[in-house]
Structures are given as structure tokens and as C-alpha cells.
Amino acid sequence: MFTGIIQDVAEISRIERAGGAARLWVATKLDVSDFEHGESISIDGVCLTVTEAAAGAFCVDVSSESLARSTLGEAGPGRKVNIERAMQANDRFGGHFVLGHVDGIGAVRRADRESEYLRLAIAPPAELMRYMVEKGSVAVDGVSLTINAVEADSFSMMLIPTTLSDTTLAGRKPGDKVNIETDIIGKYIERFLAARSGGITIDKLREQGFE
């Protein structure tokens, strides 16, 4: 479980590919001395497992499924990535429930600077639009964000200076691909409603006038 509060902008230092999967070494400013073998860590919003840690870096294995369903499939050495260690039971909960299970890859449509802020508009896969709700939560490259506006095929957020300085999102430009994880609460509600009411979905509720 993660919160979407990024702890470091790290860098992929080495990638070893074999049989459709990959092994990534990531250089980080975090203290890796207490990284435990088998602990979960989020890299650009993808939940992965630490296999080794030494000298300011750690290693994770990435399955062919994770490579295919996230932007890590196109990653190379030198790429900057957002990382967050899994939350502990006594942690302050500052973002929202983030599982590290990427729902799809979106594309940046607009990146408009407004003084110290950045208005970022993203077009997700069409099937994810039903989970985008004004003032709702979304994780973009592992960053917990609040949706400010929803259009027919895109959603937008206003990124504050802290988010821009502490994550990779400041460098996003139109056409860039990003990992998207929708709010797990909305997905569970849709699932429960469908099971109890003969296939009712969020889209069908909207057609009936519910927002």
C-alpha cells in the first residue's frame, strides 16, 4: 500500500533484459541500509519488489506483464523516476490509497504553466474515463493528485510548486506517456453495484442522471 507521496526522484542506472522481463537497478538518495529483501516499492506508480540493495542503489525485477502495462517497458538508463516505499502502519496518511497497480498508460495532452503552477491535462485510455471525477483522486506516475476538471476524453490537474520540485511531473510535455492508477474506492463501488444490481456500472448510472 502506498499514498502517492513521492520520497525521491531517483534514476535508473542499469537495465538487464531477459526473456521478456527485466531487472532494474535504481540509484536513490534514500538510505538503502534498511531496505529489506522482498519489501514493496513504487517506481513511477508500479509496485515492485526489492531484491537487492547496496551503495545508494537497489534492484527490482520487472515481469513482462508490468513492462507491457506501464511506461517501464520503454524505460532506459538515465531515466528519472518517482519512488515511494510502502507505507508503515504508523505512517501519516498524506495522499490517497494507491496500490501500485497501473490501470493504463495515458498521454499528456497539455502542460500549461501558470506562474509557479502547472496545469496538466491527460488523455487516459477510454475505458478509464468513467473513474475520473472532479475533485476525485488519481495517481499519475505514482503521484497522488486531485482532479480539477473532467472533459469528454481527458482530465486535468493543477500541480503546486512542491509537486513540481519533488517529482518528475515538472518535465512532462504534450505527447509524453504516463502511468495512471484510478481511485480503488470507485472501482470497488462499481464492482459491488454490478454484482448486486444485475450489471449496473458507473457509466449506466451516469446515463440515468446520477453523478
What's the helix and strand layout?
Elements (H helix, E strand, L loop, with lengths): L7 E11 L2 E7 L12 E4 L2 E9 L2 E6 L1 H6 L10 E6 L18 E11 L2 E7 L13 E4 L2 E4 L2 E2 L4 E5 L1 H6 L10 E6 L1 H13 L5 H6 L4
Antiparallel strand pairs: 1-2, 1-6, 2-5, 3-4, 3-6, 4-5, 7-8, 7-13, 8-12, 9-10, 9-13, 11-12
- Count of DSSP-assigned helices: 4
CATH architecture assignment name of the largest domain = Beta Barrel
Secondary structural class:
mainly beta
What is the total domain count? 2
**Compute the gyration radius: what is it?**
18 Å
Largest sheet: 7 strands, antiparallel
Trace the largest sheet across and list its strands.
10-9-13-7-8-12-11
Coarse shape: globular
CATH class of the largest domain: Mainly Beta
How far apart, in Å, are the first and last alpha carbons? Answer: 28 Å
Mean pLDDT: 92
Q: Give me the CATH fold name of the largest domain.
A: Elongation Factor Tu (Ef-tu), domain 3
Strand content of the residues, in percent? 35-45%
Order of helices and strands: EEEEEHEEEEEEEHEHH
Strands, count: 13
Helix content: 10-25%
